[in-house]
């Protein structure tokens, strides 16, 4: 007789408890809603999506726009990633916009989000990322598709630290690379234990 399928949803980093570090905080932000959106950057469809989300689509390369728990990340000239709180039904809200050159795909299960924060966050990321993360080059509200330790990620500057808060970054990583990236982050942070 076949065993019943497990109905509990587990995050890619379930059970991950990062070692305590000085100047760096690591944590998974699991189950964030993620919707890939493709459409022409200008025109009635983009305006309608912006109204539906309450946030205009950012049109400057590598920027984000947001309101509360909702962020819209510019991934390309006609591509955005809409990120919301766990359980947000963004795909259903945007479903009416499908067609006529508009694609809406729920990619929530594709990636998980890792938070890297603290006064040494930039130093840690610099061990494996070629981007210049200095606040003058990668300030709050910037995003980039890049590599971190050979893992493809979407990197988002949540706070660049210039406001007095600690620098904080979201790393959106494919679920299949999440454990690798978590292990790499802890290994690269060994000097901060």
Describe this structure as you would to a colleague.
The chain is an alpha+beta fold and 193 residues long. It has 2 domains: 25-30 and 110-192, 2-Layer Sandwich (Gyrase A, domain 2); 33-106, Heterotetrameric sarcosine oxidase (Alpha-Beta Plaits), CATH 3.30.70. Helices cover 17% and strands 32% of the residues. The chain has helices at 44-53, 90-94, 121-126, 178-188; strands spanning 25-29, 33-38, 64-67, 70-76, 79-84, 103-106, 111-117, 143-148, 151-159, 168-174. It has a 5-stranded antiparallel sheet with strand order 1-7-10-9-8. A 5-stranded antiparallel sheet has the order 3-4-5-2-6. A hairpin with a 2-residue loop joins strand 4 and strand 5 (79-84). InterPro entries: SoxG, TrmE/GcvT-like. It comes from Rugosimonospora africana. This is Sarcosine oxidase subunit gamma.
- CA-to-CA gap between the ends? 49 Å
Tell me the total number of β-strands. Answer: 10
Residue-averaged pLDDT, rounded? 94
What is Rg? Answer: 18 Å
Q: Low-confidence stretches at least 5 residues in length (pLDDT < 50)?
A: none
Task: Indicate the CATH class of the largest domain.
Answer: Alpha Beta
The CATH H-level homologous superfamily of the largest domain: Probable tRNA modification gtpase trme, domain 1
Shape: globular
Task: Give a short account of the largest sheet.
Answer: 5 strands, antiparallel
Give helix and strand order, one letter per element, not per position: EEHEEEHEEHEEEH
Number of helices: 4
The CATH architecture assignment of the largest domain turns out to be 2-Layer Sandwich
User: Which range does the strand content fall in?
Assistant: 25-35%
Helix content: 10-25%
């Amino acid at each position: 007789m076949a065993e019943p399928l497990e109905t509990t949803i587990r995050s890619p980093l379930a059970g991950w408890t990062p070692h305590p570090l000085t100047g760096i905080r690591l944590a998974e932000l699991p189950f964030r809603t993620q919707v890939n959106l493709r459409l022409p950057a200008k025109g009635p469809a983009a305006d309608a999506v912006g109204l539906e989300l309450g946030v205009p689509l950012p049109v400057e390369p590598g920027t984000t726009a947001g309101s509360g728990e909702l962020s819209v990340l510019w991934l390309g000239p006609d591509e955005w990633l809409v990120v919301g709180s766990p359980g947000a039904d963004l795909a259903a809200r945007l479903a009416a916009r499908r067609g006529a050159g508009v694609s809406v795909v729920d990619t929530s299960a594709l990636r998980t989000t890792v938070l890297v924060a603290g006064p040494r966050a930039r130093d840690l990321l610099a061990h494996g990322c070629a981007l210049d993360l200095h606040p003058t080059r990668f300030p709050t509200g910037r995003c980039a598709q890049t590599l971190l330790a050979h893992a493809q990620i979407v990197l988002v500057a949540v706070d660049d630290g210039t406001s007095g808060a600690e620098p904080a970054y979201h790393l959106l990583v494919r679920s299949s690379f999440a454990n690798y990236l978590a292990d790499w982050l802890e290994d690269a942070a060994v000097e901060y234990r």
